[in-house]
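re: ur question from earlier - yeah i can do the single chain one, its not a big deal. heres the input i used so u can compare w yours
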Amino acid sequence: MTAAEPLPAWAVPPPGGFTAEDLDRIPDLPPHTELIDGSLVLPNPQTYFHSLAGCLVQTGLHDTAPDSLRVVRNMTVTLGPRNRPEPDVMVLRAEAVTDEAEETGYRAEDAVLVIEVVSPDSEERDRKRKPQLYAEAGIPHFWRVEKGEGRHPVVHVYELDTTTGAYVPTGIHRDRLKLPVPFDIDIVLTTIDRL
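and the output i got, formated as tokens:
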């Protein structure tokens, strides 16, 4: 019989839970770990659809974004002391991205658009909790990407209603995503078949 290996330090949360700053300080924390409501959310393996959809959206946004914005993938956004999720794709104000490119995350006020590609293990978070947190942090735009027929993505688009502080749906897109906000966007979603 062998002795059980000791648990890593991050396996036992401190009183009150973890903080956003802890993600940068915890040794041996698995990459892409998120912080939701003071709890660590460990990543599961991604599906091929998840990877394709993220790539399609990131490329489409990158190709159309003005110089005042930057598109990043799999970077965290600090929404408060106990919340630091990692959207699949995020559009940021250009001044938030330094020339050194050493950031490990960004502030909510730097985010213009956050996008979550829904996976079976993250459905509840991506459909309910994360949009709620993003809206409370004042991020103006949120997209949720779901798997439609075959490998085709369905993009649910939301805009922040500043009066209520909640997102309101502005459209569901299946073949083409053509929007005037937060900038002129035109992504042919069916091109995922060529990726």
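Helices lie at 22-25, 48-64, 123-136. not sure if urs matches, ping me
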